[in-house]
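Need tokens for this chain, all 229 residues.
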Amino acid sequence: MRNNVIGVLIIAALCGCGKKELEAENKILKEKNLQLEQEIAQLKETAEYHYQQGIAFKSDQDFLSAKDEFLKVIEKYPTSQLVTVAKTQLTEVGRELAKAEAKKIAEEKKRKEAEKYRPRSASEAIEEWKAFRSNESKYRGTVTTWAFRVRGFTRENPYGYLGDNSNYQVVVEGNNDFTYQAASMFYPEKFPKATEKDWLVVTGKYSGLSSDGMIFLAPTKVKNEGFRE
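Here are the structure tokens for all 229 residues:
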């Protein structure tokens, strides 16, 4: 029994020593890792490092990151021989960023323009109709595209209803001094003839309200999709 107890104590002592040695080794490894990280950080803080990073980002077309790296070379290492070439690279990157910004602006302009000519759904058109009625001065001149069914004529202009709700009436104005019907004779490509129950897709500017509450559109484009249920 006594021998067994002694054996257990020896094993425990050995395990304790092993644990301490392992902790000591881990501590040494952590210190070495920290030292290595510091050395890597010091290596990074050179003009050469930032310049090469800039070149790599430029190659990947990450021009914003490239710009940051070339600026670091110029601002942090003003006496470096790489400053001159970094400035050249910065100019090239600036041109690419300007191109990207111009492209972004053009695409946004194109998207907004396309939105004008996108036929609104019945629910979208009705919400716009309500907004136009609620604040005529604010929305006057707004360009939109509505589809509606012709139900008759007012002052020889086609008029109809958005969806099937007779509360949302819209009138297509004629061209300048012409009524719509007259304009359709002179400008058939812009003002196609319309008859009862035809569906018109109209792109136009909101121009105001009639005395009985109809909304007027001054059209820039009218498409007659004909009769459909």
